[in-house]
Amino acid sequence: xxxxxxxxxxxxxxxxxxxxxxxxxxxxxxxxxxxxxxxxxxxxxxxxxxxxxxxxxxxxxxxxxxxxxxxxxxxxxxxxxxxxxxxxxxxxxxxxxxxxxxxxxxxxxxxxxxxxxxxxxxxxxxxxxxxxxxxxxxxxxxxxxxxxxxxxxxxxxxxxxxxxxxxxxxxxxxxxxxxxxxxxxxxxxxxxxxxxxxxxxxxxxxxxxxxxxxxxxxxxxxxxxxxxxxxxxxxxxxxxxxxxxxxxxxxxxxxxxxxxxxxxxxxxxxxxxxxxxxxxxxxxxxxxxxxxxxxxxxxxxxxxxxxxxxxxxxxxxxxxxxxxxxxxxxxxxxxxxxxxxxxxxxxxxxxxxxxxxxxxxxxxxxxxxxxxxxxxxxxxxxxxxxxxxxxxxxxxxxxxxxxxxxxxxxxxxxxxxxxxxxxxx
Length: 425
Fold this sequence. Notes:
Rossmann fold, 37% helix
């Protein structure tokens, strides 16, 4: 990811390559002859047997992005729930969680442990753009799947040199396009100030937004960045307030998102429309600020909010809440990060079910050949789709506004594939 711009190329070559090589790679351990009539022979079966699947995940359980760590609990609860029902195609899942503290060098260490010591089938869920970028070269060389990484960097879907890695959530450019469309429709003369994390995550969303509003009446009039090691963003927020912008686009991770919201609330002389990006929109981020101080904040989402009573009778939500109480009693099931973990684990389940070969190659190909796959906790109208020239599983989002003590959806889901066309370099 250090070369995001250079790597952002069409994914068509990847899809063509994977189609040509599906179930034909002659490397690694032999898969059982019983799979696909022996067509899977010669493919990698490390980490998967007739009875088990070994998966590894790397999360910031500590450090400046530790709020994301609870995602692993949502993932683990899903797999425990599935194991109680007999597993995935009869295989019980063992999910091994490692902590990288949101430090890329540590992520590399943990990836090596998972692959070389734990012998995992796949490294499912590396969290964060920096950590994911740090390990994808290694995993690609080892031919270990890195499915559904917990980061929306657009490079995971545009790069054609790392076929073993793919994202899951809407990419940051697609999300930026949703905000751009909202502003050009609702505030066509908006003056926007931007706070962003100074890495590929922040720059990806900022760049996507600037490109999407180019030529419109919406103008970016001020920008301030921060480092993930900074203690606070108070100085940046003070500087942005002097711009007198009427919109604040907040491109932050949870810790800094909470700080920015609090700074905005304290500054009674500046009252911009505050748009916070999805990854910092959890109620767990807003609650410390005080719900009374975040009324009217806007964001976008693609999965059901477990705190929203609208979904109280939803069968998928009922299953999630019951399973979280049983398998993760020490966590808050209303935390959106837990719901995220459950939803992405359910998505991997669907991909594993669709493998033509029970091999690493089989999973690599399956996640790049999804056809309108439904997952219970995704919003109505949001499905998983990938294929030739399209390596972005989810590209539909819906706007939401914070009101009272929860987010409320508004408008219609925006399918950025149809609204804006495919991403290009």
